[in-house]
């Protein structure tokens, strides 16, 4: 099965490990991601001002281009890309005025036919968790994993229609399927502070400490996420937190696709495990 | 200080916020669910519930709050408001009124170099889209 794929701006550089491990693990599961022939940054954030159509143009163009490919779906894995593509698509589908304005601007005739999908959904709905269980030959038994969703995947529930907005479980189901142990904790859909890292660093440090402490208190040995910004905030901040609080316990923060790739026995070098601030390799591959 | 709801400045502000956000802040019953859930609450000067009250009253001080800039548009408040108000859109309206007048808080030169070179690209795009004019 081939599905058009939108990597987004960060996956060809700072989050290359997410790109490689997503393509690699889905390929191992029989899904080939074919990168859109032309794409730009999606704009990353969905404009919340009603009159800000220009903030939707980039995402609308990506969707309209994806509609020229076969299959009617567009895969994207970064939580921000998924959020903005899904919401702009929703607007184009349901708001005739917005549809007309965006189409006039782009000189397109796109009505929201594309279904933006996330690899977590592909794993569950297209591949199936049982098939993944069979293919996950590397034993991750005993590895305690906390799943972190953050804000963009699940909210607003009416438009994202992704999973339960307060208690999503799709990532946990995948973790169980590949044989690792799920750690339940309270902070999985709170926000890490997001782009506030650039403006109010303290806010992010505070949120990260809360999230990580809540996971490690429940025995988590690793955290997984699908968002390059969550990954960065949760990972990069740990050294700073440790400087202020000597009792702080560091924990590796990975992309869920890296864990999936390990379980599927993809070559370790292809997963970008060396690109994190808190090195996950001692825990995962005994390096 | 009591707000004079009839003052033209207040009425204009209420109207503009309504127009940009598409939300009716008058539905807010001041329960505080948004404040209790808010990601930025510890570093805000006024929590979302109080911002909602200022918007109801057309209090122009709402435009100068730190709160509107430390809102990370995480949508927890929006998801949980029992009155169905999309609070994040109201926060955005307050930012947007500032931004359209050239008032911004994120300035590239002020971002520490160690961060600027390390953050994922999407952080810069989203930060500048939300916090700079
Ligand atoms: S949650 Fe809604 S009703 Fe309650 S204080 Fe906040 S805005 Fe008002
Ligand atoms: S969207 Fe903004 S105001 Fe609402 S909870 Fe998140 S940070 Fe707070």
From TrEMBL, chain A:
Major enzyme class: oxidoreductase
Give any GO molecular function from the UniProt entry: CoB--CoM heterodisulfide reductase activity
Specify the protein name.
CoB--CoM heterodisulfide reductase
Give the enzyme's EC designation: 1.8.98.1
**Cited InterPro entries:** Cys_rich_dom (IPR004017), HdrB/HdrD_reductase (IPR051278)
Q: Which Pfam families match?
A: CCG
Keywords assigned by UniProt, alphabetized:
Oxidoreductase
Keyword Oxidoreductase appears in the UniProt entry:
yes
Query: Would I find Zinc among this entry's keywords?
Result: no
Describe the location of the Cysteine-rich domain by residue ranges.
5-86, 145-235
From TrEMBL, chain B:
Give Gene Ontology CC terms. Answer: plasma membrane
Record protein name field: Heterodisulfide reductase subunit C-like protein
One GO MF term: oxidoreductase activity
**Domain of life per record:** Bacteria
4Fe-4S ferredoxin-type domain residues: 18-49
Q: Is Hydrolase among the key words of this record?
A: no
The answer to whether keyword Signal applies is no
Arranged from A to Z, the UniProt key words for this protein are: 4Fe-4S, Iron, Iron-sulfur, Metal-binding, Oxidoreductase
What Gene3D superfamilies does this protein's entry cite? Alpha-helical ferredoxin
Q: Which InterPro entries match?
A: 4Fe4S_Fe-S-bd, 4Fe4S_Fe_S_CS, HdrC_iron-sulfur_subunit, Helical_ferredxn
């Amino acid at each position: 099965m081939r599905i058009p794929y939108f990597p987004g701006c960060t996956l060809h550089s700072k989050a290359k490990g997410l790109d490689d491990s997503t393509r690699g693990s889905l390929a191992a599961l029989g899904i080939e991601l074919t990168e859109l022939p032309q794409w730009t940054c999606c704009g990353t954030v969905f404009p919340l001002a009603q009159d800000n159509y220009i903030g939707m143009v980039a995402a609308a163009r990506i969707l309209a281009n994806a509609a020229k490919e076969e299959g009617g779906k567009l895969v994207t894995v970064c939580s921000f890309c998924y959020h903005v593509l899904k919401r702009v698509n929703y607007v184009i589908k349901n708001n005739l005025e917005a549809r007309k304005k965006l189409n006039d601007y782009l000189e397109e005739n796109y009505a929201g036919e594309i279904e933006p999908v996330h690899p977590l959904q592909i794993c569950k709905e297209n591949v199936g968790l049982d098939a993944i269980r069979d293919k996950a030959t590397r034993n991750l038994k005993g590895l305690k994993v906390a799943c972190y969703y953050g804000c963009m995947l699940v909210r607003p529930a009416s438009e994202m229609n992704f999973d339960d907005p307060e208690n999503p479980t799709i990532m946990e189901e995948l973790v169980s399927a590949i044989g690792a142990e799920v750690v339940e904790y309270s902070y999985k859909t709170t926000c890490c502070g997001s782009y506030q890292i650039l403006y109010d660093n303290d806010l992010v440090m505070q949120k990260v400490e809360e999230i990580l402490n809540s996971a490690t208190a429940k025995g988590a040995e690793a955290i997984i996420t699908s968002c390059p910004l969550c990954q960065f905030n949760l990972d990069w901040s740990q050294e700073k937190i440790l400087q202020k609080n000597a009792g702080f316990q560091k924990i590796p923060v990975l992309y869920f696709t890296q864990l999936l790739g390990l379980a599927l026995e993809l070559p370790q070098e292809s997963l970008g495990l060396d690109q994190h601030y808190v090195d996950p390799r001692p825990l995962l591959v005994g390096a | 200080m009591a707000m004079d709801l009839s003052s033209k400045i207040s009425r204009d502000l209420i109207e503009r916020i309504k127009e940009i956000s598409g939300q009716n802040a008058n539905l807010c019953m001041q329960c505080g669910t948004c404040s209790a859930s808010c990601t930025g609450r510890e570093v805000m000067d006024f929590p979302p519930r109080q911002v909602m009250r200022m918007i109801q009253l057309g209090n122009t001080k709402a435009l100068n709050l730190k709160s509107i800039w430390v809102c990370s548009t995480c949508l927890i408040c929006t998801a949980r408001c029992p009155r169905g108000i999309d609070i994040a859109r109201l926060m955005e309206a307050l930012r947007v009124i500032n931004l359209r007048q050239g008032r911004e808080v994120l300035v590239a030169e002020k971002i520490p170099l160690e961060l600027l070179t390390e953050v994922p690209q999407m952080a810069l795009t989203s930060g500048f889209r939300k916090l700079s004019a």
